[in-house]
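From the methods appendix. Each design record in this collection lists the tokenized structure first, followed by the designed amino acid sequence. Records were kept in a plain field format so they could be parsed without special tools. The example shown here is representative of the layout used throughout.

RECORD:
FOLD TOKENS (261 positions):
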């Protein structure tokens, strides 16, 4: 794949480190709105109306937690939505140095909101919900998919955030200008942050829509990273770092998950 194709395949162009206050503001604003949107879908009746209109059935609301108005299962799903938004905002404002065009900000926000919306609706639909029990009561909490999914979500989002923070600290040191970062979690897998993202997206999906849906989401992101994102980044890093990148690939053969791929 040549360089122009790589640029066309990414929403954010690597190496273009320009201030983009408008694009950044759009992304932050849209991502901040997402948890409130998911709350309206899950708790305030918007999702129920849609599922019923499509001929489906909605799970019972469950016993709410005092002063919160949501059941334990619902709270987990909402916290995952909020966590995904806060992680992305933190990435944009703290660790990312690339320009954020308005179009890219809108596309990134819509993609994540659609994914979160799918999770919320599948959680509410009785055919796929991970929270189904006779009364959706606390006695059924947490279900196995919620427990496993929540663990994957937590581990994955920490891997993504911590790996990016490690690289950011290295890059901000003037002595490391133009150098390739090969330490921390990236010494275990060349694209450890992508692996973390795949894990938490799969965990979020599993906690919402069950084992099959979680596996589908994991497979989709694994395929996307393996067939599109990683080849693009390999091309960019090969051009930018030359022999240092070649040696890094030899020393760290794993791309996403240490010892697996």
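DESIGN:
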């Amino acid at each position: 794949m040549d360089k122009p194709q790589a640029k066309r395949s990414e929403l954010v162009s690597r190496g273009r480190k320009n201030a983009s206050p408008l694009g950044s503001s759009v992304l932050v604003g849209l991502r901040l709105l997402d948890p409130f949107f998911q709350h309206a879908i899950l708790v305030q009746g918007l999702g129920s109306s849609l599922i019923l209109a499509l001929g489906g059935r909605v799970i019972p609301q469950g016993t709410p937690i005092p002063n919160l108005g949501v059941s334990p299962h619902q709270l987990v799903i909402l916290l995952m939505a909020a966590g995904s938004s806060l992680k992305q905002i933190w990435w944009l404002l703290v660790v990312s140095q690339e320009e954020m065009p308005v179009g890219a900000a809108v596309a990134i926000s819509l993609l994540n909101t659609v994914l979160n919306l799918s999770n919320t609706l599948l959680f509410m639909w009785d055919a796929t919900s991970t929270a189904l029990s006779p009364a959706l009561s606390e006695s059924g909490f947490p279900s196995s998919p919620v427990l496993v999914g929540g663990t994957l979500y937590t581990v994955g989002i920490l891997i993504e955030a911590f790996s990016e923070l490690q690289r950011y600290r290295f890059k901000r040191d003037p002595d490391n200008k133009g150098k390739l970062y090969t330490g921390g979690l990236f010494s275990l897998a060349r694209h450890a942050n992508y692996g973390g993202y795949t894990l938490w997206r799969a965990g979020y999906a599993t906690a919402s829509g069950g084992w099959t849906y979680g596996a589908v989401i994991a497979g989709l992101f694994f395929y996307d990273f393996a067939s599109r994102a990683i080849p693009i980044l390999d091309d960019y890093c090969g051009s930018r770092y030359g022999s240092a990148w070649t040696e890094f690939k030899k020393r760290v053969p794993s791309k996403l998950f240490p010892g697996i791929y």
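APPENDIX NOTE: The two ends are 21 Å apart (CA to CA).
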